[in-house]
Amino acid sequence: MDKAQILIASNRGPVSFSTADDGSLEHRRGGGGLVSGMISVATEIDSIWVCAALSDADRRAAAEAPQARLDQAYDLDGMRVHMLDIPRQTFDGAYTGVANSTLWFVQHMLYDTPNKPSFGSRFRRTWEDYTAYNNAFAEALVAGAAEGARVAVQDYHLALVPRILRARRPDLRIAHFSHTPWAPPEYFRMLPGQVARELLEGMLGADRLGFLSPRWADAFLRCCEEILRAKVDFERRTVEHGGRVVGVGVHALGA
Questions:
Q1: Euclidean distance between the first and the last CA atom of the chain, given in angstroms as a whole number
Q2: How many CB atoms are located within 10 Å of the residue 237 CB?
Q3: SS3 label, residue 143
Q4: pTM above 0.90?
Q5: Percent of the chain topping pLDDT 70
């Protein structure tokens, strides 16, 4: 498999598929602000975009493409795309059960806290799916990255990926960008303690973390200080943990 110098990892990819009336597959550009913001990177430099199949048509396209590399089966205007057909139960548990039904609500501080959330056996099962989902992405990134490549991991769906990559490929330069708010520790602590630590430590596997606003970057720093007992420099926005120093930056999209 050809290797890339820059890899983008996100749940939603730059292309999506549908089934035409004659049964053939049709593709179009994927939706969402992330795709719009990253599309030039994927087309103008030596890159591979790793994403998940979101529909039955996506799954069929991934299954039919050589090694799930869509660019080897379709004209994608110069983009190289590796679409992962993650088992449906694993995907549903990770995407619906954890990312969109738990983490999104925590980060936006939208829970009806007297009644929700509940972290019982069902959540523990979906957390296993979330871990497996992140491992699947990390495996694809490891396989696709050239020596010393840069990896740009996107959002709360893939918070564990940086740490997994760091263990597998210490030569990589890893960044993680959060496209949502980040809750302060007073709210973030509602997650089970081990889950909160795994999320923070997962992201701290990166060399640099990005947030959309100073408030959300500082909320993450406070979580690291109070939950991980990490050494935090709020002026420089750095976190020292596990023998490494991770930079935290503020980067408004389009700036």
A1: 35
A2: 19
A3: helix
A4: yes
A5: 93
